[in-house]
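Transposase IS4 family protein
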Amino acid sequence: MAIIPQLELFSWEEIEPLGDLERLRLVLEHLPDEALMAHLEKSRGHGRDDYPVRAMWNSMLAGIVFQHPSIESLRRELSRNGQLRSICGLRAVPSAAAYTRFLRSLMEHGSWIESMFDELVKALSEELPEFGRRLAMDSKAIASWASRPPKEKKEDGRRDLDAAYGVKTYRGTREDGSTWEKVVRWFGYKLHLVVDAQHELPVAYTVTKGSRSDVKEGHVLLDELEKRQPEMLKKAEVLTADRGYDDSKLLSRCWDEYGIKPVIDTRRLWKDGEQTRLLPGHTNVVYDEGGAVYCYCPETGARQQMSNGGFEKDRGTLKKVCPAKAYGITCQGREQCPVAGGVRVALAVDRRIFTPIARESYKWAKEYRYRTAVERVNSRLDVSFGFERHTIRGLAKMRARCGLALCVMLAMALGRVREKQQDRMRSLVRSVS
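Predicted structure tokens:
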């Protein structure tokens, strides 16, 4: 818990009813930053202490909570707002150079920010029994302050030498059956997130250049969870993601290593014109790239989609039921049909297409809707934490800034929970209904 300076001008009783200052109070009281502060104090040693580490840190947090897009914007607010200076523990406004030095020190201690994030995730997991059962994964584009790579590669504190071009393609189907496609390009970075889909809170993150593949970083996120939040992987039941994470190795890893059911949309990778493939070991059963399984009537040749019969965990198979039996339809060739009793489809037939939750089932569609939880977290980062309009330069600074924003988000939510204000938690973290 943060140490809040007790100055003669400062009283929480006077300002707590104000919404913005209450948010800052939640962060200062519930952020587990003692270890980081002690380490920064030790690093400073016996040098000048014009602006105490704790006061600088509190003011940085205030800048995030109050959505200041730059250090100069924060300094102007501190100059104007004596009450905020008192809350932070400042008697004078720190210089721009002081903030530059402090930010440089934070970047050098990025692992401490990650540890603070992990501690917050663990605390929320203990407070909220369902926290971590449903996970969702996605990436967020963060455009750089620059619009293109600089011609001069020499670092001078003004250029962004770490940013790279990124591209994301969004596809969908309209109500009339036609398809649409939207391609987004940017120069900058990517924030890769795993969030709790029920409460819309982050549980793992990485920050990379914009050119980094979502699939490759998806494996890194699982590695990070395994290393830093192993209990979360044991607790998780479902992981949802869009088709950008469609990868047989990632899908297999979720189920085989962690027992997590992947609900990840498929890309269309089969060759043009290839609509179905024959199910191995059968002569009249085929499947398509969307996971649907069909049988052909041996008498008329009519094709019908087989019904879902559930997942057999011990066998690693999906049960498919004869459509005549499941739906009561007439099938002239049922007597001689070799699959009248149903079929078992092993996940091993195609790990990318066949998953423990059948892709064409209602349950799969229901779980896939939880994927939008990441989009709402991303939206809060843009609107409430300033990433839509920022002046951050360099990968190290971007990692530190993203980590701090996510820690603030978690600390505010944790404060609401601990203070028995779960109903007010919706203003920070709106649960999926």
